[in-house]
Amino acid sequence: MNRLAQSAPRTMLYDISDKLHSTDWGRMAVFYARFALGTAFLSAVASRFGLWERTVDLKHFAGFLDYAGEVLSFMPNTAVPYFAWAATGCETTLGILLILGLWQRWVALASAILLAMFGSAMAISFGLKSPMDYSVFSASAGALLLARYAFRQKNRVEPTERRAISMTPPLKFLALVTALCIVVLGATKLPAQMQNDDELLRARESVWRAWFAGDTKTLAELVPTETIVMSGGEKEWKHQPDVLRSSAEFHSKGGRLLRLEFSRTEVQHFGDVAVIWSSYFLETEVEGKRSSGASRVTEIFVRQHGRWTNPGWHTDEEE
Question: Is residue 276 a contact partner of residue 267, using CB atoms and an 8 Å limit?
Answer without folding.
Answer: yes
